[in-house]
Amino acid sequence: MKIKLSKENFNEGLKKLSKDYKILAPVSLGYKGTYSDTDVVRYQEVNSIEEMEFNKKSDFSPKEVIFPITQILFYFTEKEFKESDIDDKKVIMFLRACDINAIKRLDQIYLSNGLDEDYYYKKLREKVKFVLVGCKKSFRNCFCVSMESNKTDNYSMGLNINDDEIQLEIKDEDLNVFKGENDNFEVEFVKENLFNIELPDTQKLNLKELANDEMWNEYNGRCIACGRCNFVCPTCSCYTMQDVYYKENENVGERRRVWAGCHVDGFTSMAGGHEFRSTKGERMRFKTMHKVYDFKKRFGYNMCVGCGRCDDACPQYISFSKCIEKVSEIVNKEEK
């Protein structure tokens, strides 16, 4: 069903849905940005469309809703353990196409990568329904068109925002609580970014030569291993485990899953002091090839969705899209 309605009527519908769902959308949080007097846009619970921020790209991805930064898996004592409780209320998330496609990548890793599904991820993932937000124009550093992640049909509702009018496509009957007039439209998507990138031909990659190429040495001097690119990325899925013991009784505590990243010092450290990737260049190589080669070789599509958040967040102005293009240049040079 496709309808058009006013923002007032849309908010009335949200009010009805809020009885059964938490409604999450990007929100601009004043004076909480990286620098003084700057805002940060991240996902928060909202009650109206006026609270939602769609004129800016969210600084953090929505993955933290289904893959929390810190997640308590269970509590333990000397003799038993208890699984942590979660809020049973279902969730509606307002996302752009690139972020919905990013969650497809997380689903691939946590639900279809091996014999068993990730139980803790699945518990949160099953609660979520997507609202696709139409994207009229590209933001700075976005290259979703090049990554073929600018479109999706995986959503329960889709909407375009036109001044004071909402165009709403309702695909899930459970969300059919909105009143409006019938309309004929398509949810908007970005057709062209501010720039395009050339992806490397994975069939022509010489992995040994690429691994030893001097291009990676550039990042030894530029990258500071802060991990921001990992933590804002909607498809990075790495984590570490922590057991936290309580002071009152050292045999009682909780086990947590905590985000980790391949750029951060200590990520590949092993007992005995060995580390697989000790230099920043080696870590950049690993991340790059994972995003545009390893994942694709296994599952048939690229891991990176071209949201550009890594470029936005890097304090050293390292461009991941440029890094991908450098790999393509090496492949093209080898071919000649």
Automatic annotation (TrEMBL):
Keyword tags: Iron, Iron-sulfur, Metal-binding
A single MF term (Gene Ontology): metal ion binding
UniProt keyword annotation of Iron-sulfur present: yes
Signal sequence extent: none
Segments traversing the membrane: none
Ranges of residues in domain 4Fe-4S ferredoxin-type: 212-244, 295-323
Name of the protein in question: Anaerobic sulfite reductase subunit A
